[in-house]
UniProtKB/TrEMBL annotation:
Residues 1-16 form the signal peptide. Residues 149-590 form the Peptidase S8/S53 domain. The active site is at residues 158, 214, 526. The lineage of its organism: Eukaryota, Viridiplantae, Streptophyta, Embryophyta, Tracheophyta. GO terms for molecular function: serine-type endopeptidase activity. The keyword Protease applies. PROSITE patterns: SUBTILASE, SUBTILASE_ASP, SUBTILASE_HIS. CDD domains: PA_subtilisin_like. Belongs to the peptidase S8 family. Keywords: Glycoprotein, Hydrolase, Protease, Secreted, Serine protease, Signal. One of its GO terms (biological process) is proteolysis. Residues 380-455 form the PA domain. Residues 646-753 form the Subtilisin-like protease fibronectin type-III domain. This is Uncharacterized protein.
Length: 767
């Protein structure tokens, strides 16, 4: 159903958005390319630091060469002993500073130099795929590289791309490129990109070609060309296609933070409309804050230039405080299921049937069933090692998910003589099967926690037997959407109380491109993110054409969030891996509903200066402000400080601190809505509260009248505690919906009120 919604988005009107102009990208190699991948002396090379510096007055309008020259003046020497240049990159637009190979002592010495602000170690980026690649083994022998026309340009910053994959097989010649496009293509064996992959570049690698497959997978989800699959289960899938099959891709291969920042700089210069990042910086127990986060920093510059930045919410769930990429100028995407099940039935000797999922189509009957971990032996429970376990030869073997990859488990089972594996969810993973291994030599059936426990119980019987058989894939296996355990949860640790994630997109068992021409299933917020990037690309172009409004990232995100769906296919609230109602900290505004997002009626706009005021509102000092915005910004004037709760965000999060020291029992939040339809319109507020007790919510005014396009109206929401105040902290969740008189538009915002009562409540986040 969700896929149908995506298909419904392919508007022919989008195809003519660009008129070709100027000549194709130049073929010069990227600058500062250093052969890291063959660095034989890696051990003795000093690490890379990103160094931020404050330009002196005489350099404020200097050209990039002059600035780079000045950057070099900070280095103790131009090269390392090996002759390798110290300078990795001198940033031009995205940061006032550079990245260079330095020792800690050299950085220390730099601290006293005029203009030095701060230095930060380059760190490896973490791809947000939960489970390692598992190949479906589909190698289609026919391909039809249909060119679906032109659309938006999506910049994908990831591990690169397999340009030979049929998902990216556009028309070879693209001359001239779309208007505004200034990027380049640096594949080693192909001089030019095509009209699917407009550009591809990298900083320190040898090529933008994908090794691991992560980058190809996410790029394929965002804008892969439709491609009919041909193997047996794939027949049931039908066609693999990106969310925006007509969009262009611009690929930036990055594996560390200094490369990522460079990639954002390039993407801005190249002229992309959307930046999609399915990665994160390492997640720390004690995060220093947004200002030290390279993705947040680069994204702010991109957003300032009108580029929407879409990022993964990370896979650290289900614990609270595990959401990442949570700056308020980023669209933060959590993962959900989409109702597709690769059905596979297990029939027990006692007649009971259990529904699992598998890519296998093999049938088996009357096989012995065994759980080697019955004695709680860790190795055996996880099928890491079955040497000391019961004899599993000829049997169907049960293993818990986790620790090593399911492919490795299957190998262990096979080596021990097992004929099939049942991969059972741990309690943490609960009711959602998000790891369906591919072709790993023996049939593997994944089951949820409850069914797994039932099977384990049955397997205590030494005579336990099971029949295995595939069943047709279903596309409405409810309830869906539902949030899998891994999807990152709020509250944010860094953003001062903005509700995150913003939105959910399909991120469980997603079929897309992999290296070497394969299609594979992967799960993760990595996979949810490019769905939203593709949808946003289409929306941005469509909406700016349909309305006369200058569309910006905040407006596109607002359209997506205020039209999102917070109920599932059974008309119940969206659930999580426990099977219970999911918190707003898991779902944000809910699941994306592309068709509704095309006609939002009203939007919450955020001028870029408000993000800077918001940073002041976080209490940032001079250095932190400089770290974020690359200039001196004095937050002292109260006018320049915006309380994070008052940022004109499409969701509302409020903290009511009623501890004896503060005692604010009520809070007023202001928001402004802008009309994006030309006709006059009238809206009425509707409130729904999950727990009515203890909290009174009032909206004023209760109706808003808009005279036409870009008319703004403000309103207040007052949250007040009422009745007996309990002894424990609690959260109140609800929705504020502005409904148009003609019932055509519902502009919905989730709200979450945290009530702090206990003294030590501040420590609610996991340390
Ligand atoms: C409404 O507010 C936006 C800023 O969010 C502004 O760009 C627009 O011009 C305003 N509309 C009018 C009619 O003033």
């Amino acid at each position: 159903m969700l896929q149908l919604m995506l298909w419904g988005l392919m508007l022919p009107s989008l195809l003519s958005t660009f008129t070709p102009s100027t000549s194709s990208g130049q073929l010069l190699p990227p600058r500062s390319r250093i052969g890291d991948e063959v660095g034989a002396h890696a051990a003795v090379r000093p690490p890379i630091y990103m160094v931020q510096v404050r330009k002196p007055a005489h350099l404020l309008s200097a050209g990039p060469e002059e600035v780079e020259e000045w950057h070099r003046s900070f280095l103790p020497s131009p090269t390392l002993d090996s002759g390798e240049p110290r300078m990795v990159i001198s940033y031009k637009t995205v940061m006032s500073g550079f990245a260079a190979r330095l020792t800690a002592e050299q950085v220390k010495a730099m601290e006293t130099m005029e203009g030095f602000v701060r230095a930060q170690l380059d760190e490896e980026l973490i791809p947000q795929t939960t489970y390692s690649p598992d190949f479906l083994g589909l190698r289609p022998d026919v391909w039809d590289a249909a060119n679906r026309g032109k659309g938006a340009i999506i910049g994908v910053i990831d591990s690169g791309i397999d340009y030979n994959h049929m998902s990216f097989a556009g028309n070879e010649i693209l001359c001239p490129p779309p208007e505004g496009w200034k990027g380049s293509c640096y594949f080693e064996r192909r001089p030019a990109c095509n009209d699917k992959i407009l550009g591809a570049t990298y900083l320190r690698m040898f090529s933008p070609t994908d090794n691991g497959g992560h980058g190809s997978h996410v790029a394929g989800i965002a804008a892969g060309l439709p491609y009919p699959l041909t193997s047996i289960r794939a027949d049931e899938f039908g066609t693999a296609s990106g969310a925006a099959p007509d969009a262009y891709l611009s690929i930036y291969r990055a594996s560390s933070t200094c490369e990522l920042l460079w990639s954002i700089e390039r993407a801005i210069e190249d002229g992309v409309h959307i930046i999609s990042i399915s990665m994160s910086t390492p997640v720390r127990q004690l995060s220093p804050g947004l200002y030290a986060n390279v993705i947040a920093k680069g994204a702010l510059e991109a957003v300032r230039r009108g580029i929407l930045v879409v990022c993964a919410a990370c896979n650290g769930g289900p614990s609270p405080g595990t959401v990442c990429n949570d700056a308020p100028w980023i669209m933060t995407v959590g993962a959900s299921t989409m109702g597709r099940a690769l059905n596979y039935v297990l029939r027990l000797g006692n007649g009971q049937e259990i529904q699992g999922e598998s890519v296998s189509v093999e049938k088996m009957s009357k096989k012995g069933l065994v759980f080697p971990g019955a004695n709680d032996e860790e190795d055996a429970r996880l099928c890491r090692n079955l040497e000391a376990a019961v004899n599993v030869a000829g049997k169907v073997v049960m293993c818990y998910t986790g620790d090593i990859t399911s492919a490795k488990k299957a190998e262990v089972v096979k080596d021990a003589g097992g004929v099939a594996m049942i991969l059972t969810n741990t309690q943490r993973r609960g009711s959602i099967v998000a790891e369906v291994p591919g072709d790993v030599g023996i049939p593997v059936v994944a089951v949820n926690y409850a069914d797994g426990e039932l099977l384990i119980n049955y397997a205590r019987n030494p005579e336990a037997i099971v029949d295995l058989r595939p069943e047709a894939i279903s596309f409405d296996a409810g309830p869906f959407p539902a949030v899998p355990s891994f999807s990152g949860r709020g509250p944010s640790r860094d953003n001062g109380g903005i509700l995150k994630p913003d939105i959910l997109g399909p991120g469980v068992n997603i079929l897309s491109a992999a290296a070497q021409g394969e299609f594979v299933l992967k799960s993760g917020t990595s996979m949810a993110t490019p769905h939203l990037s593709g949808i946003a690309a289409i929306l941005k172009l469509y909406l700016s054409k349909e309305t006369g409004i200058g569309w910006n990232p905040a407006i596109v995100r607002s359209a997506i969030m205020t039209t999102a769906v917070s109920s599932n296919n059974e008309d119940d609230p969206i659930t999580d891996e426990t099977g219970d109602r999911a918190s707003l900290f898991a779902i944000g505004a809910g699941h994306v509903h592309p068709a509704a997002a095309m006609d939002p009626g009203l939007v919450y706009d955020i001028p870029v200066v408000d993000y800077v005021r918001y940073l002041c509102g976080l209490g940032y000092g001079d250095e932190e402000m400089f770290a974020m915005v690359d200039r001196t910004f004095n937050c002292n004037s109260p006018r320049l400080r915006l309380d994070p709760e008052q940022l004109n965000y499409p969701s509302i999060m409020v903290t009511l601190d009623v501890r004896p020291t503060s005692k604010s029992k009520s809070k007023t939040i202001s928001r402004t809505l802008m009309s994006v339809v030309s006709k006059p319109s009238k809206y009425t507020a509707e409130l729904s509260l999950r727990t009515q007790r203890r909290m009174a919510v009032r909206v004023s005014p209760e109706t808003l009248q808009f005279s036409g396009l870009s008319d703004n109206r403000s309103f207040d929401v007052v949250f007040s505690l009422c009745g007996q105040i309990p002894h424990e902290d609690f959260d109140v969740e609800g929705h504020l919906r502005w409904v148009s008189d003609d019932k055509k538009h519902t502009v919905s915002s989730p709200f979450l009120v945290r009530v702090l009562i206990k003294q030590a409540s501040q420590d609610r986040l996991p340390a």
